[in-house]
Design a protein that fits this description.
Layout: H1 4-13, E1 25-31, E2 34-41, E3 56-62, E4 65-71, E5 86-91, E6 97-103, E7 118-123, E8 129-135, E9 151-157, E10 160-167, E11 182-187, E12 193-199, E13 214-219, E14 225-231, E15 246-252, E16 256-262, E17 277-283, E18 286-293, E19 308-313, E20 319-325, E21 340-345, E22 351-357, E23 372-377, E24 383-389, E25 395-398
Antiparallel strand pairs: 1-2, 2-3, 3-4, 4-5, 5-6, 6-7, 7-8, 8-9, 9-10, 10-11, 11-12, 12-13, 13-14, 14-15, 15-16, 16-17, 17-18, 18-19, 19-20, 20-21, 21-22, 22-23, 23-24, 24-25
């Protein structure tokens, strides 16, 4: 966890103006294994102003507190595009970030461009985020305009979320920018989710970000999901724009599960490639292979033009590698001209790069002339920039 701040900062610093005539880049200066300064340099290795409005950032460490000070090319404090000149990050003894403060050139609290001066986080005993609160200059809760709320409270039952409430300055439920105030989940005795619903601040049904009000999961006596249905605010089945309103799962032995989807009228849904059923091979509750059947139960290719997909996972359980096969189980290229890909993630589990692979499992160049994509994010983990590189590591495209 001690690398979270460095990782986030490095990602922010790596964002560049792709269209600029001169390529600029950042360089870290370390002391005793810690980054003490990051500077922006032009193609002549001279200090220059980076895309976030500063030329360098200086880090100071004091126990669980890390301070970032942003400077211009003369080494003087400068206001970043985020509306602050210093950022102070405090962690608890477990490495969890518990507070981020924003300051001006003089080191005094200031409002950033999102409308708050500080954000605090508290955690459950098992490490999940319990309460996030945004505060203003007076250290009181303040509504962030882009979010529509001042704090968010998450409650759990045996590590499974039972509710998440978005709140105003007084701690009352408030509809957030996405149009709902509360997410509620009903659990069974095994703490497995049976249903999820969205409500407005007044308790009335609300439409969630995926286009449904309530999602109901049926489970068998082993706790396995046998059906999922989606309902709108009028309690009617809805395809919520996804093309299907209900899913059914059937099991073959302990490792094979077949998924078939239906419309609101009960008809089987096939996608544009003619796939009616997904066949998933499971191991340790993870999908290790996926294949496809048409409406007659015959093996077929999916929309990527492949008959099978193999999945490999990292130690944290995230998908690390994907390889494609034909309907007979042989390595095969998809319609994009590659046979798979491998992802790399940062300390927070966010994908920072994707390398495309050939049928031999080695890095390969796609028809687009690149073999790797690197993703860059701002401090809120929102994607800010995407770059493409060839097999030699040369940048060939940017977005």
């Amino acid at each position: 966890m001690k690398r979270i701040l460095t990782v986030i900062t490095t990602i922010i610093l790596c964002i560049t103006a792709a269209a600029a005539a001169a390529e600029i880049h950042s360089r870290d200066i370390e002391n005793n294994g810690k980054v003490t300064e990051t500077v922006w340099l032009d193609d002549n290795d001279q200090p220059t102003t980076g895309p976030e409005g500063y030329a360098s950032v200086r880090y100071t460490y004091k126990r669980e507190v890390t301070t970032e000070e942003y400077l211009d090319t003369d080494g003087q404090p400068v206001e970043t595009t985020g509306g602050y000149s210093r950022k102070v990050v405090t962690k608890d003894g477990k490495g969890n970030v518990i507070q981020i403060d924003y300051q001006d050139r003089k080191g005094e609290r200031t409002l950033n461009r999102w409308g708050y001066a500080s954000v605090t986080m508290s955690y459950t005993g098992f490490g999940a985020v319990k309460l996030v609160t945004y505060t203003g200059l007076n250290k009181r809760a303040v509504t962030v305009p882009s979010l529509g709320y001042a704090s968010v409270l998450t409650q759990y039952s045996n590590k499974t979320m039972t509710s998440k409430t978005f709140r105003d300055e007084k701690g009352n439920p408030v509809d957030n920018a996405q149009g709902y105030a509360v997410i509620r989940q009903k659990l069974n005795k095994r703490y497995q989710v049976l249903s999820t619903r969205y409500d407005h601040a007044d308790g009335s049904p609300a439409t969630g970000p995926d286009g449904w009000f309530r999602c109901v999961k049926d489970r068998d006596d082993q706790g396995r999901v046998t059906g999922i249905a989606y309902y709108d605010v009028n309690s009617q089945l809805t395809d919520r724009g996804a093309g299907y309103a209900r899913e059914e799962y059937t099991y073959e032995g302990s490792s094979i599960v077949k998924l078939t989807r239906y419309d609101a009228g009960g008809g089987i849904i096939t996608d544009k490639a003619g796939v009616a059923t997904l066949v998933r091979e499971m191991k340790d509750d993870r999908i290790i292979r996926e294949s496809f059947l048409d409406s007659e139960g015959k093996r077929t290719n999916n929309s990527l033009g492949v008959g099978g997909i193999l999945y490999s996972y990292d130690q944290q359980g995230g998908i690390e590698k994907v390889m494609y096969q034909d309907t007979e189980g042989n390595p095969a290229q998809c319609s994009g001209g590659y046979a798979g890909y491998r992802d790399a993630r940062d300390a927070d589990g966010v994908t920072v790069s994707r390398t495309f692979l050939g049928t031999d499992g080695l890095a390969a160049e796609t028809p687009g002339g690149y073999s790797e994509i690197r993703y860059f994010y701002n401090e809120f983990k929102q994607l800010s920039s995407t770059r493409y590189y060839d097999l030699n590591g040369k940048q060939v495209q940017a977005e």
